[in-house]
């Protein structure tokens, strides 16, 4: 049996936007993704193509943070950053780094700090001390 044949089918549902701009997710979707109340989703909207994509970002018990950074655009830069993040016992939930031919590149990480003994400020200081990081801003979500 091919890998494609073993994958669960895509769920397609039509949802409505409520009076206060809320969207209620279908129970079938929540069950398929094991979502419970408080689950956080990352929403990416592209008005140019009329598309909205949501990804499960964190479970309710997660201590979620965002790190936006400008880094050197050369081989090994991300390895230094992700290695340092792993040393702090922080999980990278998602990472967006668009392709670029420039000397530096801007990216965003969603981090789960739940297992780290360090504060977000401590982690920011550690990452900003790396020679490949030009700028970093963080915030708890």
Question: Any chance you could write out the topology, listing elements then pairs?
Answer:
Elements: H1 3-6, H2 27-32, E1 40-46, E2 51-58, E3 64-72, H3 77-87, E4 91-96, E5 104-112, H4 120-128, E6 133-140
Structure description:
With 141 residues, this protein is an alpha+beta fold. It has two domains: 12-58, Ribbon (Pemi-like Protein 1, Chain: D); 64-140, ACT domain (Alpha-Beta Plaits). It is built from four helices and six strands; from the N terminus they run ααβββαββαβ. The protein has helices at 3-6, 27-32, 77-87, 120-128, and strands at residues 40-46, 51-58, 64-72, 91-96, 104-112, 133-140. Strand 4 (91-96) and strand 5 (104-112) form a beta hairpin. The longest helix has 11 residues, at 77-87. The protein is globular and about 50 Å long. The protein starts with a helix and ends with a strand. The model has no long low-confidence stretch (mean pLDDT 91).
Core attributes:
single chain, about 140 residues, alpha+beta, Pemi-like Protein 1, Chain: D, Alpha-Beta Plaits, 2 domains, four-stranded antiparallel β-sheet, 4 helices, 6 strands, globular
């Amino acid at each position: 049996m091919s890998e494609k044949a073993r994958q669960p089918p895509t769920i397609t549902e039509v949802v409505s936007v409520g009076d206060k701009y809320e969207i209620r997710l279908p129970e079938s979707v929540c069950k398929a993704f094991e979502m419970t109340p408080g689950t956080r989703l990352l929403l990416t909207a592209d008005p140019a193509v009329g598309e909205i994509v949501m990804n499960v970002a964190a479970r309710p018990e997660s201590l979620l943070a965002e790190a936006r950074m400008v880094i050197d655009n050369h081989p090994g830069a991300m390895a230094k950053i992700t290695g340092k993040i792993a040393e702090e016992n922080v999980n990278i939930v998602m990472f967006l780094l668009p392709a670029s031919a420039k000397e530096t590149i801007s990216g965003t990480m969603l981090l789960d700090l739940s297992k780290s003994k360090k504060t977000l400020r401590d982690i920011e200081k550690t990452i900003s001390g790396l020679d490949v990081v030009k700028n970093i801003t963080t915030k708890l979500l």
